[in-house]
Design a protein that fits this description.
The structure holds two protein chains of two kinds. By secondary structure, chain A is mostly beta strands. In chain A, 0% of the residues lie in helices and 50% in strands. Chain A has no helices and eleven strands. In chain A, a hairpin with a 2-residue loop joins strand 7 and strand 8. By secondary structure, chain B is mainly β. In chain B, strand 5 and strand 6 form a beta hairpin. The chains are: A mainly beta, B mainly beta.
Chain lengths: 118, 112
């Protein structure tokens, strides 16, 4: 299957700083990637759809100025948590699909990033 | 909007026990249905999928059948192992590019 790599896997940062998380499709080009957030013992909630070469589409309730998404190339999307606070501590995970496939094909997930804001 | 509901955990079983995790969905049209598994400290992996009514997905001893009449996609395994301890997510997708709607996840703990 296709490989999606996410980095870093864990990060601890101080309150008020910004953190960048990278999501790369290693063996295919992804025009669309998705960013999810997972709260402890809860499900994954879609945050935004990252579109190569255009602005991301954010889900209702997600602050776009807080969670900056840049999809600068066909293999890389980044999520930057700006001015992080402890409530932003969470597990963030990205996914991508091989373009041109239908909705019934597999989404490939990165390994996820555990963000802890202290 | 679309939604997925799955049984809450945690589910604690002994090795070789039978596992069932219920999943029902609400969606317009004809979604594809998935089960993803998340092992401790890892990301999500596709476990199985079904793309149309009456399809049965299967993998690693797990099975699930797409039941349109009951809008369900229950996951079953006849004999679980300790290595099956994980969180299981039921999900659906309708959009190209695979934006997924997830259920709440069910944590399964298999004891030796």
């Amino acid at each position: 299957g296709a490989v999606v790599s996410q980095h870093p896997s864990r990060v601890i940062c101080k309150s008020g700083t910004s953190v960048k998380i990278e999501c790369r499709s290693l063996d295919f080009q992804a025009t669309t990637m998705f960013w999810y957030r997972q709260f402890p013992k809860q499900s994954l909630m879609l945050m935004a759809t990252s579109n190569e070469g255009s602005k991301a589409t954010y889900e209702q309730g997600v602050e776009k100025d807080k969670f900056l998404i840049n999809h600068a190339s066909l293999t890389l999307s980044t999520l930057t948590v700006t001015s992080a606070h402890p409530e932003d501590s969470s597990f963030y995970i990205c996914s991508a699909s091989v373009p041109g496939r239908q909705a019934n094909t597999e989404a490939f997930f990165g390994q996820g990033t555990r963000l802890t804001v202290v | 909007g679309d939604s997925v509901t799955q049984m809450e955990g945690p589910v604690t079983l002994s090795e070789e026990a039978f596992l069932t995790i219920n999943c029902t969905y609400t969606a317009t049209g004809y979604p594809s249905l998935f089960w993803y598994v998340q092992y401790p400290g890892e990301g999500l992996q596709l476990l199985l999928k079904a793309t149309k009514a009456d399809d049965k997905g299967s993998n690693k001893g797990f099975e699930a059948t797409y039941r349109k009449e009951t809008t369900s996609f229950h996951l079953e395994k006849g004999s679980v192992q300790v290595s099956d301890s994980a969180v299981y997510f039921c999900a659906l997708s309708k959009a190209a590019g695979n934006k997924l709607t997830f259920g709440g996840g069910t944590r399964v703990l298999v004891k030796p």
